[in-house]
Amino acid sequence: MKKHKLLYVLFFWLSLVQMTYAQTTISGKVVDELSGSALSNVSVRIKDTRIGGVSDNNGNFSINAPKLPATILFTMVGFEDQEVQVSAASNNLVIKMQENMNNTLNEVVVTGLASSIKRKNLANAVSSVNAAELTGVTKPQTTDAALYGKVTGANIRSNSGAPGGGMSIQLRGLSSLVGASQPLIILDGVYVNNSTQSTGRATVNGAGNSTQDDGSNRLADINPDEIENIEILKGPSAAAIYGTRANAGVIIITTKKGKEGRTKVSISEDFGLTTPLKLLGYDDWSEEKINYFYGGTTQSQTNRRNLELERFREAKANNSFVNYEDYFYDHQRFSSNTRLNVSGGTEKTKFFVAGGINDENGLIKNTGFQRYTVRANIDQKITNAIQLSVNSSYIRSNTDRGFTGNQNRTGASIGYAIAATPNYYDLRQRPDGTYPDNPYFTENPIALTDKSTNNSLVNRSISSFNLGIDLFKGESSYMKFVLNGGLDYLQNTTNIHLPEDLQYQRSIANPGDIMNGKQESFNTNLQAALVYNFNLKRVNMNSQVGMVRLDFKDDLLFVRGQGLAPLQKNVKQAAVQTIFNQFFMRTQEAGIFLQQEANFEDKIIGTLGVRFDKSSLNGNPNKLFAFPKASLAMNLTSFDFLRDHFISQLKPRVAYGETAGPVAFGATYSSLVGVNIGGLLGSSLSTTVGNVNILPETAKELEFGVDVGILKNRLSLEATYYIKNTANNIQPLNLSPSSGFTSTSSNLAELSNKGIELSLSGTPFERENFKWNSRLMFWKNDITISKLGIPTYTTGGFGVSYGTFLMKEGEKLGTIVGTPQINPGEYTVWGNSQPKFNMSFSNNLTIYKNFDFSFLFDWKKGGYNVNLTNLNLDEGGNSKDWFGDRNGDGIPNGKQREPEPFNNAGRFVEDASYIKLREVGLYYSMPTEVTQRLFKNKVQRFRAGISGNNLVMISKYSGYDPETSTFGNGLANNIDVGPYPSARRFFLNLSLDF
């Protein structure tokens, strides 16, 4: 009996020992090997198990090991994976992780609609911009503006200096003659609306069509601080799987996600100061100048000259000169950007919740941009086989853009008005509250600014889901079903108002003009795919097949009231009430895609795929168009014959793909125009006839490249050459008058883009207290009209007297021509709107572990603008050098501009080259130990810094900014007419993590 009791005791003791082993706690701290600073959110797991966790904000970790010894695996993006053997004696470990120089090669890049691939195996030049590159240096005005100088092959320009954006992005040149050539935007799987919506401003001020509305493109709604990563598929070889809407490339935006671990609260604040990037300077007036400018011998000329001299002397006596450029533009304005993020989660549930308020005041009085955003991203592991992600956001933005740019007769443009007004005539508000009339122009710009409205109020909701179901998993294969979709609802309420007591309004029959607009778009997309991954001996095969459904709905209504009752802003209080425009659009598209990837031990990687699309926009809405793709990449350093310590990567690659651009809505139909004959209402055909055989614009691209890395990728080179040919380009075809119509849409034109992209990055210097990362980019694109199909013509701008764009077979697209005439119908070539090349140079220096200094230079060489701002200044006598005499012939510069023969179109066509310091930032990150001691362990991280963007511009261009375009983002977008000046922006940046 005693023996049995002894055995029971021994068994119980052994059980306790076994339980003790099962509950052994392994703890320690993870630090950066180079800097010694703590690393948070490092994944800590027992190898070949699901047991683990993550390090906290101080780098500390603690996990329970079921048995010892065990192997602990430490992983973190940007660092080398590390395995550590632990035993019962292992405790208070200090894990030093080494930064991974090959980190970018291990990034996961989207290659299909339901699959991805490591960058080191990628066969295309896909650019990626992460959160640190996007917003880590300074506060960008908009998401697209944050891409300046960070994407090879991207020609980005601002259409206006007004707060709230207005950007144009061209990837690998132009892909359309009449379209905007803007890329498709995918946000968390949602096909989002990035249109530049009409506001009605160009109608009310007489400028022309909606391309001169100076509206924001809707990517301005997206808060860049919520973005984790952006991938840019620049050409058809990479974007073919997106089919019909990918002709101009695809930008894929992924927002931030929660991570497993303790809940993290982050608060950030940016305090900004905005000043003008450049002012032109206006010429001073004198009696001598007035005598010349208003010269002449007739009685009326003499009277006018005497009147101006009297006004000048009165201003001199009263010291009432006004520098109108300074009055409107030379201001210091404040901005703020507040962000609150809460993230965290468990192994099964992860969350990221964010809110942001952005408030920016414009340089011009009563202009500005406010954006309010709320986001919630939830990732739920329902079972081991089912995962669900839901992303949802709400955006509200309010934009006041003022009145700049082009106008026609109404005077509703500050740039026009101040160019025509001499500084000795005071237009400022009188003590009695009234504004004097402007005798030099049709409007008083001060009254216009103080009393008029150009407002856009946007309410927007973007939501998406992704459901992944693992159908089965084997030792060497698996199959999963992926279902994702989303919606983008956008409501834009616009208001343009010119009060009845403005100078020009008082001169017309129905003074007081108001245009109210309501635009709603509702886009939905649904996609289902099967993915099967299996091994064929040493080759891993990844197959996917799926379907896509897209639905687009747009409703637009603009109502206009003219002859407003005093102090009224309601269209019903107007003498003339009209429905200016009403528009309904419904578009449906469907596609099928198949893709096969083959990977031979990460040595040879090949892809074949095709997408079939049909669209209700096409002439035949039921016809399927095929968009194939193929690619091949070889990692030569993975082969035994090229294993070299010096060359760490050598990957030649080739890719081919086809895409399309959608046909404009209604191009297949002949629209009806309302008529009133003798009081009888009816409809008649418009003069533009529909084309039932219209085809989508298509593009084919062949891309060659090589990626090279040396010294463990301490220095990396990515080189790409591409040939992109577009066909079926749509343009108007003039018809014989005998047909009863003037034009129809045709598919006759073809374009050819050829370009090169180079990206050189590396770490030139690295020591314990100093690290320098650097990147140099170069890209160049040449575009030619290889086929026009119709007679040569010119388009855009204000005609050949000022500079316009030549459309001629065999010529470079963007060629600017104008007077003098060489032969009948042939004019002098003065330049080309497309740049010769672009370069960027970015650097990041980490000094003494806690200081970070970063800067980015952006260089555009070539690319000409038609600068009509100078025309207005010359005509008004206000050009900075107007009364100078450059060639000494006695004729002022403002009356005689080079090149000879004087005063031809060449005087307006200018080289728009520039070098800009796009971004610069200096930050201090307080050491963790100091932060915890100072804030009594309530704050885990504190970072402060100063930063700015557009701080320096070097350019011979005589306008405010060589990027500015008054005519939107299409082919003829290099027109400069009285723009909103660009801004230089400074920030104080503060952030706290709890």
SSE layout and pairing:
Layout: H1 2-22, E1 24-32, E2 43-46, E3 52-54, E4 60-65, E5 70-75, E6 82-86, E7 93-97, E8 108-110, E9 116-118, E10 127-130, H2 131-135, E11 154-158, E12 167-171, E13 184-187, E14 190-191, H3 201-204, E15 227-233, H4 236-239, E16 250-255, E17 261-276, H5 287-293, H6 299-318, H7 324-329, E18 333-345, E19 349-361, E20 368-381, E21 386-400, H8 414-420, H9 445-451, E22 453-473, E23 477-498, H10 503-506, E24 513-536, E25 539-564, E26 574-600, E27 604-615, E28 625-634, E29 647-661, E30 672-677, E31 680-685, E32 688-689, E33 697-710, E34 715-734, E35 743-767, E36 770-787, E37 793-795, E38 804-807, E39 815-823, E40 826-832, E41 835-847, E42 851-862, E43 864-867, H11 869-876, E44 909-911, E45 914-925, H12 928-934, E46 941-954, E47 975-976, E48 983-993
Parallel strand pairs: 1-7, 13-16, 32-35, 43-47
Antiparallel strand pairs: 1-4, 2-3, 2-5, 5-6, 8-9, 10-15, 11-12, 13-14, 15-16, 17-18, 17-48, 18-19, 19-20, 20-21, 21-22, 22-23, 23-24, 24-25, 25-26, 26-27, 27-28, 28-29, 29-33, 30-31, 33-34, 34-35, 35-36, 36-41, 37-38, 38-39, 39-40, 41-42, 42-45, 43-44, 45-46, 46-48
